[in-house]
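From the pipeline queue, job 12 of 40. The input is one protein chain; the requested action is below.

Action: predict structure.
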Amino acid sequence: MRAIGNYILRGRLQAIGVISFLTIFSLLFPALAYLMSGVPVALVTLRKGGQIGIQVIAGSLLLSLLLSLLMQISPPVVLVFAISIWLPVWFCALIVRKTASHGLLVLSSGVFGMLFIILMYSFMADVNGWWRSSIDIWLQSSFPDGAGDEYQQIFEAAVPLMNAMMASGIVISLILTILIARWWQSLLFNAGAFRKEFYALHLPRTLFYPTLIGVILLLLGKDLQQSLLRDLLIVVVFLYLFQGLSTIHRLASKKGLSHAWLIGLYALLMLMPQMILFMACVGMADSWFGSGKMKS
């Protein structure tokens, strides 16, 4: 990790080469796109600043487009794929560089997720219908012989939550990308700094009030308003999830608990989705009663 990080930070051309290669390679693994092509962009921005970060993004975009032509990959796919990752990553990394606040990182990532939700409801007359048709197209292209019919019921049940799931995926990917890049930067230049920053993660108390209002409106709302509020609140749950994880890590360190406790916690989060809501409640409580910096 040290050698690769030092190589990326050696100069713009080195960073552009690595990011472009990883971007093209990540087309084979879309689920890892943020981590593969976003982490190097975040590392450069965190270490070198926003101006250098933008220059590297521009150079990487040009080289990625050239590589896509040589490999007969549709350039618009690379263009959308890259910009939708690099620019949000650059923005969030710049916030962390200027503030060293993981709480602001979580909030800014949440804004991107909520913006995605709002844009979907603004431009799509039937959001669920759009997701349903997109899933049908994917199933037909992935299972041309009709074998995908057995998955139809599973995806049909998930359609009402697809918009919120996608937005939450964007938020989680953004946060993890910047956190990994910040950890990488700490490993290279300031050992222990990442842990200190992550333990200090605090969302503002004032976030509780619009969350409470949103829950009340969700119970009273109907149709589009209800679906929109539900999706936005699901994103908020994931914001508080990261607050809760910071709280548990901080308490485990303070009490000197074994790492096995944390491993067990993450295992439960993977196996029991209900744990996400529980951890979000822990985060909400810590945000309200804790002693972090962001209490305004």
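Job complete. Confidence is low (pLDDT under 50) at residues 291-296.
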